[in-house]
Design brief:
single chain; mainly alpha
Amino acid sequence: MHDNDPEVLQKEKNRVLSRNINDKTSAPHENAPGWNESLASASEAAVKADKSPGSPGELQSKTVEYMRARRVEEGDGSASTTAYYSRDEVKGPLSGAQGKEEVGDATEDSILKKLKELKGKVKADRGEA
């Protein structure tokens, strides 16, 4: 979708005018050959997707194929979209923080016990009995 960006509109118009009619970067919707999402508004794209006979999964896979074909055509190549790292690393004071695996070990009884202990400490600090 163009979001009223004149650069996107001009680039897409030039691409459409210079392309082969049978290329793989035509509209991803089979029920709308030649339709160009890049030249459409957000509401037009939403209506087109709603009227498409395919399931959301089918639309998703067709969109991925379409985007890959566009990347190859635009010279971005077919570079991998897979990250080469397992996860983000946190550096600094939070690097030793415990993760969600440890949180799952807490039971209702252990939480209530800890709350009672804390409540007792607060009362002792206040001088209450």
